[in-house]
Amino acid sequence: MTYSAEKAIYKVNGNNKGNKVKYMLIKALEKKKEKLRIEVDGETHTLLNLLRENAWKTGAKQAAYIIKHPYLSRPEMIIRAKNPGKVLNDAIQLIINNTKEFEREFGRALKR
Prior knowledge:
Blueprint lengths: L1 E3 L4 E3 L14 E6 L3 E6 L4 H13 L4 E5 L9 E5 L3 H28 L1
Antiparallel strand pairs: 1-2, 3-4, 4-6, 5-6
């Protein structure tokens, strides 16, 4: 995963096994010292709820998202923290680590 604050784009390579690479476009709508508001193109409640929950775990004072219209608007997420960019990055890393742990445990369970 790479992040460019200047362009406000996360490029997420969701796969390393030959599937298509998915690039996720994230636009920074508002970036202040203790507030970050982003727009996430092409995502739904599944990812945003996961990000919101993990942002709380990584130090957010506030973490919420809104999808104004399911077909006509892009979801927005707001994070308030001492360093909201770090909280978002830490939340993403926590999701990655939890997914890897789940994959290991699931593999062990299948071998039993």
